[in-house]
Amino acid sequence: MRARGPFPGVLLGGQTDTMPTIVTDTDQQPPTNRYPHRIASPPRAGDCCFSEMEWLDAPHRDARGVYQDRRCPRCGFAVRVILHETPDTALGNSLGEDSAHSVVRNVPE
Fold first, then answer.
1. Domain segments of the chain: what residues?
2. Which of 51, 65, 94, 97 could form a disulfide with 85 if both were Cys (CB 3.0 to 4.6 A apart)?
3. Which residue ranges in the chain fall short of pLDDT 50?
4. Confidence (pTM)
5. Distance between CA atoms of residues 50 and 84, nearest Å
6. DSSP the chain
């Protein structure tokens, strides 16, 4: 559930996907919940995750936006949910300029 751009590891706006996290995705360890220090999570969600995911904490804000962690109490799968992404104003301005020049509307007379 991460807000990704068209290339793996790159978020929209040219930022890299290096958000610090306490979650480690691994098959080598059993799922553990040592929140807020460390969470070992299976790398894939189970069938139980759709209905049983719980919010772990209050929403957090950083330079990229607002996020919150969720974890399935049954299988241990954990994920960071991006609740709101902070807009990249420079990217938005450049896209606005590009689209203003590329969109021409032909209105019939």
1. 23-89
2. 65
3. 1-12
4. 0.57
5. 21
6. -----SSTTB-TTS-BS----SEEE-SSS--EEETTTEEEE-SS--TTHHHH-EE-S--EE-SSEEEEEEE-TTT--EEEEEEEEPP-HHHHHHHHHHHHHH-------
